[in-house]
Amino acid sequence: MATPPFELSYTMERGDFVALTRAMTRATLRAAILRALLIIAGAAVGFVIGTGFHPAGAIEELVTLKAPAEGYIIMSVVGLVIVFLIAVARPLYLRSAATAAYKRSAAAGQVVTLKLDDDRVFARQPGVTTTIDWSAVTRLIETPAYLFIAISRREALIVPRRAFAGDADFATFVAWARGKAPAIDAKAPSA
Question: What is the distance, to the nearest Å, from the Cα of residue 136 to the centroid of all Cα atoms in its chain?
């Protein structure tokens, strides 16, 4: 069973970069509500355009179900396009952006070594060494395959599950990391 201080190494892969990007850009509840409002607004605009009425007339047509069929078709198409752009295109864009960033990264394909003790986290790869005090950590983001140790809204250390001998060792590490800075998740925005 793994015990502190933890020392682990792994080779940085494209999937690590993509997972980091997804975790760091995961929408908050506020962003999800905003997206839903945009979908509703887009559908309403489509309905207004499709019916040819001003907004008051369009709303009346909508609630009384007396609008021409093409109005509902246009509203539906506009709504589906907005849903596609928000739900499908954004993750595809983030994945392609992360892949492009990975290809330009000095960390691509490099061996990353992490040493984590009670006071700080040391990260090392060829040509780069970083030391981060636990007090600088803003949040911990756990996914089934990773623990990300975020130090800002855009930067985090990647700790992949595959760097541990087994799932139990990874679980022990995650519990230890969460215990290292119990106030982290309380002060950070929701992940």
Answer: 20
Find, among 139, 156, 147, 144, the residue nearest to 191 by Cα: 139
Q: Distance (Å, rounded) from C-alpha 158 to C-alpha 2?
A: 18
Q: What is the pTM of this model?
A: 0.71
Which tokens go with 106?
């000095």
Q: Which of 191, 142, 151, 149 is nearest to 171 (CA)?
A: 142
Domains, the chain, in order of start with CATH, read 6-25+106-186 (2.30.29), 29-104 (no CATH)
* Cα dist from 10 to 16, 26, 106, 125, 164, whole Å: 10, 24, 15, 10, 9
Rounded to 5°, angle at Cα 187 from 183 and 191: 105
H-helix or E-strand spanning residue 153: none
Q: What is the pLDDT along the chain (191 residues), one digit of tens a residue?
A: 567 899 999 999 999 989 999 898 877 778 778 877 877 777 667 666 666 655 566 666 666 766 677 767 777 777 777 777 777 777 888 889 889 989 998 889 999 999 999 999 999 999 999 999 999 999 999 999 999 999 998 899 999 999 999 999 999 999 999 988 665 654 444 44
Beta bridge partners of 150: 139, 156
Strand partners, 11: 111
Looking at this protein, which amino acid is placed at residue 53?
F
- Joined tokens for residue 135: 């007090």
